[in-house]
């Protein structure tokens, strides 16, 4: 499938039935240092290093007792939490099948399912200290549409975080270039003491993904109508 190229880079031979974009993706995977490091360290995906880098900067995982991982497949983020804080109760949810992870409870269902919040709360056994979301909506190639769909997931995650987090807890979610929109940032600022955006080094430079990090949960945000009264 592959052969050595100049500078030690791996190049993929074009094969019948393999598109040019598929070849480019394979070459990128073969030459990505984070992919190689994930394989060596036993992580299921390079995304594990995004959380490791965010944790190093924001101190997310240490001291947590219950952690919720929304859209956990293939499981790299839950693996990170498990390794850094093996005593924590970790619950993850995803539509995609996920191989078992020692010490992690996995629910195979849609996060937007009306039964999901109750199932997740039951599995956690109490309020969470950290809600993680590496979820991204399926893209359609239209930038504005993709942004709106991803923001809808982030907002749904924030609403759930408002119901399940302990005071002082944190919510971390993937957003796209430009970060969370003004309405969502305003919502998060009512709910949390600090709200910041970050692009960890493990995120590819050509990727549009950023992360919003909301820390110091204050409580449920009041509805705009209630604020006006």
Structure overview:
- The chain has helices at residues 20-31, 33-41, 47-58, 76-84, 116-124, 143-164, 182-191, 224-228, and strands spanning 2-4, 10-12, 66-70, 89-94, 104-108, 128-133, 165-175, 192-198, 210-217.
- It has a seven-stranded mixed beta sheet with strand order 5-4-3-6-7-9-8, with helices on both faces. A two-stranded antiparallel ribbon has the order 1-2.
- The chain has eight helices and nine strands.
- α3 (47-58) packs across α4.
- It has 229 residues and is α/β, with parallel strands linked by helices.
- It has two domains: 2-31, no CATH class; 45-228, Rossmann fold (3-Layer(aba) Sandwich), CATH 3.40.50.
- The model is unreliable at 1-7, 23-27 and 224-229 (pLDDT under 50).
| Individual helix count | 8
Radius of gyration: 19 Å
What form results from the Cα inertia axes? globular
> SSE order in H/E notation?
EEHHHEHEEHEHEHEEH
The average pLDDT is 82
What fraction, in percent, of the residue positions are helical?
25-40%
Number of strands: 9
Query: What's the N-to-C terminus distance?
Result: 66 Å
The structural class is alpha/beta
The proportion of strand residues reads 15-25%
Number of self-contained structural domains? 2
């Amino acid at each position: 499938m592959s052969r050595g190229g100049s500078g030690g880079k791996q190049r993929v031979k074009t094969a019948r039935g393999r598109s040019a974009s598929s070849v480019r993706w394979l070459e990128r995977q073969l030459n990505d240092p984070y992919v190689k490091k994930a394989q060596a360290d036993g992580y299921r995906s390079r995304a594990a290093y995004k959380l490791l880098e965010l944790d190093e900067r924001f101190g997310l995982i240490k001291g947590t007792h219950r952690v919720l991982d929304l859209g956990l497949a293939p499981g790299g983020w839950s693996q990170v939490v498990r390794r850094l804080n093996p005593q924590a109760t970790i619950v993850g949810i995803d539509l995609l099948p996920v191989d078992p992870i020692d010490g992690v409870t996995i629910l195979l269902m849609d996060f937007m399912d009306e039964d999901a919040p109750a199932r997740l709360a039951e599995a956690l056994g109490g309020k969470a200290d950290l809600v993680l979301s590496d979820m991204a909506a399926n893209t359609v190639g239209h930038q504005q549409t993709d942004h709106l769909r991803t923001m809808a997931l982030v907002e749904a995650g924030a609403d759930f975080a408002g119901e399940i987090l302990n005071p002082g807890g944190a919510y971390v979610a993937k957003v796209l270039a430009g970060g969370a929109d003004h309405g969502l940032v305003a919502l998060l600022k009512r709910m949390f003491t600090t709200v910041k955006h970050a692009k960890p080094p493990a995120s590819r430079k050509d990727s549009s993904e950023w992360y919003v990090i909301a820390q110091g949960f204050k409580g449920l945000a009041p509805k705009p109508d209630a604020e006006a009264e």
